[in-house]
């Protein structure tokens, strides 16, 4: 395919996605679902017939996109709102992810009778709440949540990816390495979290101090500097064996709560860039999917979704929020807000990349589960908040 044609197709798909988002707002269909659908229509089984099977490239694009989405989410996070829930949010983003994976594994292995390898990988890959999905739903519905619900949801979704990545990589290692050491995995997790948090704080503080002390002269250079900071923060943290996702999210929080010239301009640009990354990521993942392979997995995936939405996630949330001050209604809402999105699909490309047994079946299973989560949970989140009277209007 020539560069001229490739550029035209990419531009057309992006423009189509913008109109799809308008349809999302008007009819209440989650935008992420439409973006994926456009990618599938353009793919090998759709009208576009674009042949795309490169799981490694999709993984790279998804990783870069997720970095910018998390950085943008951090920039828009108000520390004054997040500070009171940091402890509980941290428990949800670590222990909560582990418990969700455990309960889903028990359900899929002992009740649905999936084999051990698929049950283990499925449970750890879909265990985290997806930041792009949560940010998109919050933004599209403008949910005016009360009592610190929005901060804890945004903080949990923005900080729980390291745990899901660790569990996923650990599961792959357990299944492929006979002499796997669990203690080493735990040590590695602590090291990744500490380095990721430290690098995010350090680079965020240094960048904020630089912006306060020096002027870049041109307003347009601030977004360029922000893009560079995102890439350097992720890369440097990963090279130091830390977690780059946690680092860019933390760096974003620090910068977003630092006063400097053109800060709002930087935040608005990063928001636009996050939209581009989000749309591109879901389009690529949609291209990677072959819908004709869904026949054998739809019922199984639907059953896994039910266990995840109504058993695994609620049990994990209620256990992690014991004596937290959140009411039963608020815990129910937090449970239902555990949306799945691009992150599980990106993580599902790792078994594909290494040609792991049943990796294509697992990828399709997770992909369809994500579609169910985005459709049902994403579409009903705002009505549920109103029904439970958790929006600010109902609190006067």
Can you tell me about this structure?
The chain has 396 residues and is mostly helical. It has a single domain (53-395), classed as Na+/H+ antiporter like fold, CATH 1.20.1530.20. It has helices spanning 3-27, 31-42, 55-75, 79-82, 86-111, 116-125, 131-141, 149-159, 161-176, 182-213, 221-239, 244-256, 263-288, 298-320, 328-336, 342-353, 359-387. The protein is globular, with a radius of gyration of 20 Å. The mean pLDDT is 86.
Summarize the topology:
Blueprint: H1 3-27, H2 31-42, H3 55-75, H4 79-82, H5 86-111, H6 116-125, H7 131-141, H8 149-159, H9 161-176, H10 182-213, H11 221-239, H12 244-256, H13 263-288, H14 298-320, H15 328-336, H16 342-353, H17 359-387
Helix pairs in contact: 1-2, 2-13, 3-11, 3-12, 3-13, 3-16, 5-6, 5-8, 5-9, 5-14, 6-9, 6-17, 7-8, 7-17, 9-10, 9-16, 10-11, 10-12, 11-12, 11-13, 14-15, 14-17, 16-17
Shape: globular
Radius of gyration: 20 Å
Task: Work out the helicity level.
Answer: over 70%
Structural class: mainly alpha
What characteristics describe this protein?
396 residues; mainly alpha; Na+/H+ antiporter like fold; 17 helices
TL;DR?
The chain is an all-alpha fold and 396 residues long.
